[in-house]
Design brief:
The chain is α/β, with parallel strands linked by helices and 724 residues long. It is built from 28 helices and 24 strands. It is globular.
Length: 724
Amino acid sequence: MTTTEPAIRNRQTAAGDVVLSVRNLHVTFPSEAGLVKAVRGLSFDLLAGETMAIVGESGSGKSVTSLAIMGLHPRNARIAGSITLHGRELVGLSDAEMSSIRGEDLAMIFQDPLSALTPVYTIGDQIVEAIQTHHDVGRTQAWKRAVELLDLVGIPNPQLRVKSFPHEFSGGMRQRAMIAQAIANDPDVIIADEPTTALDVTIQAQVLEVLKKAQLETGAAVIMITHDLGVVAGMSDRVTVMYAGRPVEQGSVDDIFYNPRMPYTIGLLGAVPRLDATNSEPLATLQGNPPTVVDLPPGCPFVPRCPLAHAGCREQEPELAPVGPGHTTACWESDRIRAEKLTSKDIFPAPVIERTVFESIPRDERDTVLSLAGMKKHYPLMKGAVLRRRVGTVYAVDGIDLDLRRGETLGLVGESGCGKSTTLLEILNLHSPTDGKIVVFGKDTSRLNRGETKTMRRDLQVVFQDPMASLDPRMPIFDIIAEPLGVHGWSKGKIETRVMELLKTVGLEESHANRYPQHFSGGQRQRVGIARALALEPELIVLDEPVSALDVSIQAGIINLLEELKQRLTLSYLFVAHDLAVIRHIADRVAVMYLGKIVEIGTVAEVYNRPSHPYTQALLSAIPIPDPQTERTRTRILLRGDLPSPANPPSGCKFRTRCPIFEQLTPEQRTPCLETMPPLDPAPAGAVVALQEAISLSATARGAGDTRVDHLVACYYARPTKVL
């Protein structure tokens, strides 16, 4: 990386040289239950300029590995094995010695930038500190360098934003600032620990591009720790799959995705909902949960979840063995997998979900269970502690129309701040919105009396994003599920029968009834939340990001369960998610929201195969696909900047400040976008065209033509564009 002065080093490591070498790494922690063997025998070589991904479920040892490399493990951790950086042994170095390496030769990008950045120092001060800690440079030069770095990672107005505090940045900007700080001293190795987990897909795409650019500028090797296999496919050269603290498969990204030889790897790949899928068949599921790494029994730790396991697997744990050039796996059945060409469908058969006759009924002939007409929710923006006064309005939801029919799943998607959660809360509150109407089961919620509201709440239930936060930790599972039944007057005998029936319905055992939420895994807790929502036999369930906090293997089981329950009980779902791949798999129709408005709505097939609004196109292009070849050839539509404030939305079309089409229009063509918000009109039919061709078609030039009434879009220059 070039700098203003040569005082900051720029070590050039030849491509192909080994930068970091890990050999037989073991990390052990003491606990009341015994020794926690968090990492067991991990080995790899990381080459200059290479990106290696470490994947696996929670508890597999991914983050512990990164902390061991950085020397950030707790004092009671016992580390054995070897970690060498440019041939220098890191295991056994004191904290002072490691401090001279961290930030200089090794850098880390943490999962939560708000926690990783010091809130009382400006972004510039923190970058300057990182530079001056390792180099004898003046503050002026270091400050100039900080501005250059923020500009490099795409922070707008870096001369001004360098003086901002972390809380003044959005999530995506904070992650960019973390990347700028990490590359400040041209490190040789960058460890990125789930760097995009909490970000919207559009911001995730921006951050990944910034990370690629930073790696290109510095020539650093990157260790990418993530559970998103789509990110792995697009970013990585090599992959290490970990399970129960040890590597179970290692190889090139093509080996892992196209020729996996370990059932666990195959199961992970089969459990991922794919954006490019052409069907909605049930996902492959890995039954059970990862084992605790305390006193592991003999044999392969994956045995309880592996359909291919035999007696020999229970006797001895397999070692990593070569199965091809640069490809190793730890499985006694790897040869059988290759010989029989076994896939996830062969090893982990997906459950058969019977489709009901109800699905054959045309949508127009089904009852409407939920309808929103011009619904608005505005909040006053107040100022002052004693004499409070209104200084503005937050336009959280600014007039939306949608309807949900019986037995249907409607997906609601968009970035954080677009109004999805506000829409859900307005529906669940069963009160009058700021303007417009909310009609549930044919009744206007603004006219409900107390008795009608209680009855309505029986038929309208919710499943929240964080199952641990939504379940009372002081109550056993039986009481949590039974509580709504008691409120609605069920007898004690009926309650007990119903709770046991619900536990069985969601795949839990009756013996679990007396356990507390903290005794369950995340997926099991979400099943408890679903059981509680089903207790009163509702007709409509609102699901707020129900699988976003779960591992991909657990997520697949919950998605399959929701689809099965929908078919069996004829439920209707309003499903909010930021993962458009999940929505494609489970939803019948999808509505795309932007800054309080619906900008595109239609059937999943229409919207995904013929996206017409540039915002929908950007969302779809930002979702990583777990296919290395596809990721190498895709062209992403990167949106500039962040979502505008709903307290100060742009005039006219709310998307115009980030619209790639608007940027290329003539002043005359921009006039309608500047003056009025486009209405939802039928999307144009015709051939799917490239994005660049759409800019030459004005609203009048487009003409009436053939349109799709089941596919509406709010854009003056709407044109179906293939992005997948």
